[in-house]
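Q: For a teaching handout, I want to show students what a protein-ligand complex looks like in token form. Below are the inputs, and the small molecule is calcium ion. Please produce the holo structure.
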Amino acid sequence: MKNNIFAIALTALALSIATGCSSAEGQADAPDAVIFETDLGNDVDDALALAMLHNYVDQGKIRLAAVMLNKKGVEPMMLADIINTYYGHPDIEIGTVSEGVTCGNEDSNYAKSVAEMTDQNGDALFPRSHESYDSIPEATKLYRKILASEPDSSVTIISVGFSTNLARLLDSKADEISPLGGRELVAKKVKLLSAMAGSGTDPNTPEYNVYMDAAAAKKVFSSWPGEVVMSPFEVGMAINYPATVIENDSLWPSMPNPVVEAYKCYQPMPYDRPTWDLTSVLYAIEGAESFELSQPSVVSVGENGTTAFTPDSTATRRYLKVDSIGAANILERLIHLTTFTPRAVLVNK
Ligand SMILES: [Ca+2]
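A: Here is the structure, written as tokens, with calcium ion included.
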């Protein structure tokens, strides 16, 4: 199956070259744009989720238009660049956040650890494509530029960190990029927001991605002008990524791999880790096959970062649920999707 998908992707690439189409707009068979909104460098599931997205790019299922960082600092940008470069897609745009929320786990910042790894000559272990990160654009501006250039109702945003950038996008005003305000731009261009956030079953316990910037989360989840599907805390908790996969070098085609190194840096090995962010990627690209979807609901975000869902047939928010059989199927799929051979590695062999 993987080979078939690979062949289809190559055929699609050949067709696009033959017809001279290079821009997404007006190209009927170009995959739709996906934007990954991440706090890369906090928990390590973001890194595995980004590896999955590169697999989908290789398969021709998506265009990864940008990696937007909502964890401030240079190391998240460096690691996004390192992972994009490793997987053979160094031109994917990166956006950053200024005055983002402060993160309290700098001692376990695996982004910094991976970026500072060196080989036996003392050179950087992992190549990167930016000489400096001084000119990385603010995410809000990059969102506006990308959304303005994409076909209507085509863009999927996968948000697996804080809502800071998305709230600022909603508040953004008409400018030289687009005559539309942010809210109108989102309504016109975005088909789905798939977000790892909150809890579907516990309205009393704050969840990290929500409470770290609760005001932004409240704005986004209560007033985002379109469909939102949330992968709640308990879904990722039910599906643990196994340390045995990280430790099995034969599953990883080209070592060293920055995602594997990130995992090893994040906590003392061996440890299994919930697949929170990976589930939002899986739903966004493959749909609800092994998940269940809640009833359409209105979500209420508390000041302290709680989420409460109230069923309402007219609402546009739902959350994912999973049973034990679904969890086992999803874990198998996630392992398959993260331990793939990148096309960049195949080409270089
Ligand atoms: Ca995250």
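A: Two things your students might notice: The chain has one domain: 31-101+118-348. Residues 205 and 306 are 6 Å apart (CA to CA).
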